[in-house]
From TrEMBL:
GO annotation, biological process: signal transduction
Protein name, UniProt field: histidine kinase
Keywords noted in UniProt: ATP-binding, Kinase, Membrane, Nucleotide-binding, Phosphoprotein, Transferase, Transmembrane, Transmembrane helix
Species of origin: Alteraurantiacibacter buctensis
Keyword Cell cycle found: no
Source taxonomy: Bacteria, Pseudomonadati, Pseudomonadota, Alphaproteobacteria, Sphingomonadales
One Pfam family matching this protein: HWE_HK
One GO CC annotation: membrane
């Protein structure tokens, strides 16, 4: 059960909220929209930060896995090279083509050897041994080949490719090539001979590539034999690697996912790109760089984003939901604000109407009192002047009807302004359509206040009644002329002129009409009334105030206000 105190507090709260909505019709919806958007952006920031941390951890993990896969590929190839070197060394540094082919086939290279283009035997050719090497090469090769290029001055020996398995057209392009003639290969072979272990070369273009410029590298394993009790270099068992194929083989072990992976020869600024999952595309965002040791040589792997930074799916969903929620809330508050404005405008209008009703009640009371006062004055004057009961009743009846006719006009105008012409026509209608009488009216359009119209109507009635009894309207050919004109913006003068009736003689005593006009009417109008008993006919001048509508039209312009918001009202 809700207590009265709680109900009162609830009403006060609602009133404050409504006043706030009415006082801030623009700020409130926009403010709520911006508040929801700010909350949404904070949520997106938190989501993106969490996603970034998760992606960084995943990126680091994926980079380490890729580096490990590259090393496994290289170590598997190095193991096969060691086996081949042991076989050739056991045969005294000489191996026949069939034996070498059988050795490679018996290795049964599995998935771990993918990325290498096979295994080759490159024999050391010392000065003077070129012819014997060419003879051996042509005896084993399907196509003629010779040692090339010619040995340069100062070069101690050559290292010519004698075999390269598997035997393919691509492999045959390398037969006879002196790998010791090229500086990068020579440096790798010298290091391998010094350390007696598999050693990778720097970035080179393989001899079997032909006209293509695809970079790669080689891994050399030296073969030594004993000659006269001393160890002598006999040649190198080696594997050539195309950089792109080597990277692709490692990605078979560890998928790169959505990351871009670049493989470089070396670690420093002079490193050369060997392979990339997206050639020509630079990684964006955070890039993880790791060193990979491949056969005693450092390589560098870089893992980064391949696309432009964009919001995650969860962030996009949060943003869309936030925009929808903010828009709906703004629309709802806008509707509430408009309803509050309409409610306030309606309350103001009702308060104004209540004030108008109270004013109308007071005004009606005042006007009823004035009308009753006029009636009492008419009764008193009629009683003093009436010779008999019938005469008294007839006089009283006519004057009350005159008041009633004027009241009808005021009722039709909603107790607003009443035109002078309509008022005079209403009082003279009983006489204007008789053929023997002439009634003339002329004047500008002027409207009178209700009390002033009552007084003028009563005066015209008395003048018309007097004219019908004793003046111009009492015989055929009589004329009554009523004209009016403005004396100023605040006064209008009405002139009653009779002609064509019996000669007028100023009465010895004041009659009822004279008293009514000069006392009642003049007192109500607060202006003097001038009566002239001219021989040709009675003349009466009435001065009537012309008031502004705001002085008497209580409900002028008091219509229900149009409901508009401040933005619409401008």
């Amino acid at each position: 059960m809700i207590s009265e105190g709680g109900s009162a507090r609830s009403k006060v709260t609602r009133g404050r909220v409504q006043r706030w909505l009415v006082g801030n019709p623009r700020f409130t919806p926009v403010g709520i929209f911006l508040l929801v958007i700010m909350v949404t952006l904070l949520a997106i920031f938190a989501i993106e930060r969490s996603e970034s941390e998760r992606n960084q951890a995943l990126q680091s993990s994926r980079s380490a896995a890729l580096a490990s896969a590259l090393e496994r590929r290289a170590n598997a190839s190095a193991a096969y090279l060691r086996a081949g070197a042991a076989l050739i060394a056991a045969q005294g540094g000489e191996v026949q083509a069939d034996d070498f082919r059988r050795f490679v086939s018996e290795l049964r290279l599995d998935g771990d050897s993918r990325g290498a283009e096979g295994i080759g035997w490159a024999k050391v050719v010392r000065p003077g041994g070129e012819a014997a090497f060419n003879t051996l090469l042509n005896a084993s090769a399907i196509i003629p080949a010779v040692l090339n290029p010619a040995r340069q001055p100062g070069q101690p020996f050559s290292v010519g490719v004698l075999y390269l398995q598997p035997d393919t057209d691509r492999s045959r392009r390398a037969l006879g090539f002196d790998m010791y003639s090229e500086p990068v290969r020579r440096a790798a072979m010298d290091e391998a001979a010094d350390q007696a272990r598999p050693t990778a070369s720097g970035a080179v273009v393989l001899a079997q590539e032909g006209d293509e410029e695809r970079p790669g590298f080689l891994i050399y394993m030296p073969v030594f034999v004993m000659v006269d009790g001393r160890r002598q270099l006999s040649g190198f068992v080696y594997s050539p690697f195309n950089g792109q194929d080597f990277l692709s083989s490692a990605l078979e072990l560890e998928d790169a996912g959505s990351y871009l992976v670049n493989l470089y020869d070396g670690w420093g600024d002079g490193s050369q790109l060997l392979a990339s999952t997206s050639p020509g595309v630079e990684p964006s965002g955070r890039v993880v760089r790791l060193q990979v040791n491949i056969a005693n040589r450092p390589f560098r792997i870089e893992v980064g984003r391949s696309g432009s930074a964009a919001l995650s799916r969860l962030s996009m969903a949060t943003l869309i939901f936030g925009l929808l929620a903010a828009s709906l809330l703004m629309l709802l508050v806008r509707m509430l604000t408009r309803q509050a404005l309409e409610d306030e405008a309606a309350l103001n209008w009702f308060e104004e109407q209540s004030a108008i009703r109270a004013t109308l009640t007071r005004e009606l009371n005042h006007r009823v009192k004035n009308t009753l006062a006029n009636v009492l004055s008419i009764i008193a004057l009629t009683r003093r002047r009436g010779g008999s009961l019938d005469e008294f009743a007839d006089g009283l009846d006519g004057r009350i009807r005159a008041l009633s006719a004027t009241h009808d006009l005021l009722t039709m105008s909603d107790w607003g302004a009443t035109p002078i012409r309509a008022l005079i026509e209403a009082e003279l209608n009983p006489y204007a359509f008789e053929a023997e009488h002439t009634v003339e009216m002329a004047g500008p359009d002027v409207e009178l206040a209700p009390n002033d119209a009552l007084s003028l109507g009563l005066a015209i009635h008395e003048l018309a009644t007097n004219a019908a009894k004793y003046g111009a309207l009492s015989r055929p050919g009589g004329t009554v002329s009523v004209t009016w004109h403005r004396r100023s913006e605040e006064l209008v003068e009405v002139a009653w002129q009779e002609s064509g009736g019996p000669p007028v003689v100023r009465p010895d005593r004041r009659g009822f009409g004279t008293d009514l006009i000069e006392r009642v009417v003049a007192q109500e109008l607060k202006q003097p009334v001038k009566l002239e008993f001219l021989p040709e006919g009675l003349r009466c001048l009435l001065t009537i105030p012309v008031r502004r509508p705001t002085q008497f039209a209580i409900r002028a312009g008091k219509q229900p206000p149009a409901i508009t918001t401040p933005a619409e009202g401008k």
